[in-house]
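Checklist before submission:
- one chain only
- standard amino acids only
- sequence pasted in full

Submission:
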Amino acid sequence: MRITFSGKLNDHRFLQLSSEYEKEQEALKVTLTSLQKELDKQEKKKVDVQQFVKIARTYTTLEKLDTSIVRECIEKIFVSAKDKKTKTQEITIVYNFIGAFDFKQANHRAKREDKIRKVGII
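Returned file contents:
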């Protein structure tokens, strides 16, 4: 028996491949939309951080804190309930443009990077 190949797909194979292609196209459209939203969010964050830095630079020699400065820099402040053992309260400051900033984590990261530099890894 001799099989010849004319280079054409039969109807069944064409429909199967076409269906798979359409499904892939739809999945790619969904992925593209999701990635575009994430990109837009990251671009907004970048602009917000730039705006925050611009405002922060205007207050580098700040000697007195007043309400206008607080309004310009801070969106809201959360104060937790008092810890009965330590008699302390946790305060979270949500800054305009950048959100809540974890100073402890940033300080820890800076110290760790400083140690790494001293050891000579970076």
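Reviewer check: The longest strand covers residues 74-79.
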